[in-house]
Amino acid sequence: MSESAEIILDGKSYQMPIVEGTENEKAIDISSLRGKTGYITLDSGYKNTGATKSAITFLDGELGILRYRGYPIEQLAERSNFVEVAYLLIYGTLPTTEELADFSDKIRRHTLVNEDMRKILDGFPSTSHPMGILSALVSSLTAFYPESLNPNQTTEEMDLSIIRLMAKISTIAAWSYKNSIGHPVNYPKNQLDYCSNFLHMMFAYPTEDYEVNPVVVDALNKLLILHADHEQNCSTSTVRLVGSANASLYSSVSAGISALWGPLHGGANQAVIEMLEQIKADGGDSKKFINKAKDKDDPFRLMGFGHRVYKNFDPRAKIIKKTADDVLNAMGVKDPILNIAKELEEAALNDPYFVERKLYPNVDFYSGIIYRALGIPTDMFTVMFALGRLPGWIAQWKEMRENKEPIGRPRQVYTGETERDYVSIDKR
Ligand code: CMC
After folding, report:
1. Catalytic residues
2. How far apart are CA 238 and CA 241, in angstroms?
3. In what order do the strands lie in the sheet with 57-60?
């Protein structure tokens, strides 16, 4: 007999099937629970709830393992590039030379955005956070490509929507930055590769030639690969949930960008640098801030530490820490906050509070230091995360569509007033 779980309610026994993944992860399938018993399950923050079956990313938080489509993150970060990893995530296999050339060429040919996009951009006040602009402009792609709203797109039409989004997001991201500093935007140069093109749009001036530094391109490829997917995190679950209502790829990803913006999620990379700056301005006493983080009466948390699923070293943090050292050395940058970060990490890793709670540095702890060295301003850090996460969001949205998943609609346990009669205003 296949394995099942027994649930006993009001003296009656119910068998719930066990589902097993390819990495032997086990789940109790409770999809028939309410129908059979009238009960639902309650799991605030979804700490124990699998929302879907997915074949894209595997992670083991206890062992610190992360694989995209079976390939270890360490190998991809070392040997692949961002566009190849995007193809892998979205289409499930490593591309052949021809497939990769075709995918890259298509992305290059779609980098230009409609000139009306600039008018929308001009309407944002200079105080706008680039994440808000990014989310709004990605959503506005539905206006330029209304056919993307069709929930019954053919595979070719869906592929075109995917290519457009992959291509245009870097133009939109770089333009939101240029707009925020009052500089003219740069048009994409399609002879450049994905990362070089983005750097050119970010940093070139109409008045000067811009040489793309290969050290920077390499580091950017690595960072984007490390952020490219992370299974059912907050923003990805948002993308799948919004998409499950048959919303378009662009509106679903726009919602994911808003979720990513939160400081407990992608916004943490900006918060880490702000925290390190604060420690530096305060005299550099990392112990003091460790104590603040441990104090339950103090809302301060050590940003870039802890993770919902990693109860071991985040494998991405290990790679990023080394990359931070390499990039700063190669570029001759001496950033005092790198030393503060290392001191803080060492102090936390030896402190019983962090050890007992299994709080380790996460992907965001060192990424901001690299972005800073690359000349990327602090409020663009989370935009960089979004650029990296895009192929993951796309792959997850596509998988959800192809698997014809039903609309996502959690239930609740109601804790409000029971029925009562309306009271007219003069009697309240
Ligand atoms: N500093 C101090 N204490 C912490 C921290 C931290 N960064 N993170 C967790 N704790 C404590 C928390 O107070 C709790 O203690 P206690 O058991 O005594 O009440 C315990 O550790 C468990 O924390 P939790 O909040 O229940 O854990 P969670 O899984 O709900 O939260 C988290 C995970 C990432 C939101 C949290 O660790 C955090 O707020 N970290 C700082 C923000 C951050 O770096 N976020 C980026 C996450 S990685 C990139 C991404 O996914 O976007």
Report:
1. 307, 364
2. 5
3. 57-60, 65-68, 71-72
Cβ atoms 365, 341 nearer than 8 A: yes
Q: In what order do the strands lie in the sheet containing 4-9?
A: 4-9, 12-20, 26-28
Could you tell me which residues come within 8 angstroms of residue 35 by beta carbon, excluding any fewer than 6 positions away? Answer: none
Domain annotation for the chain: domains and CATH numbers: 4-50 (2.20.28), 95-404 (1.10.580.10)
Tokens of 84: 């190849």
Task: Say if CB 131 and CB 386 are below 8 A apart.
Answer: yes
Question: Which tokens is 59 given?
Answer: 């992670």
| pLDDT tens-digit map of 154-211 | 999 999 999 999 999 999 999 999 988 888 999 999 999 999 999 999 999 988 878 9
| Paired strand residues for 15 | 6
Q: Is residue 222 within 6 Å of ligand 1 at its C-beta?
A: no
Sequential DSSP letters for 26-87: EEE--TTHHHHHS-----GGGTT------SSEEEETTTTEEEETTEEHHHHHHH--HHHHHH
User: For the segment 77-98, what is each residue's pLDDT rounded down to a tens digit?
Assistant: 999 999 999 999 999 999 999 9
* Residue whose CB lies within 8 A of the most ligand 1 atoms, among 276, 289, 305, for a mutation test: 305
pTM over 0.90: yes
Length of the chain: 428
The answer to whether the CB of 164 falls within 8 A of the CB of 110 is: yes
> Which protein residue has the closest C-alpha to ligand 1 atom 44?
304
> CA 378, CA 396: separation in Å to the nearest integer?
28
Ligand 1 pocket test: pick from 359, 363, 384, 393 the residue with the most ligand atoms within 8 Å of its Cβ. 359
Compute the distance from residue 17 Cα to the ligand 1 centre, in Å.
33
CA of 276 to the centre of ligand 1 (A): 18
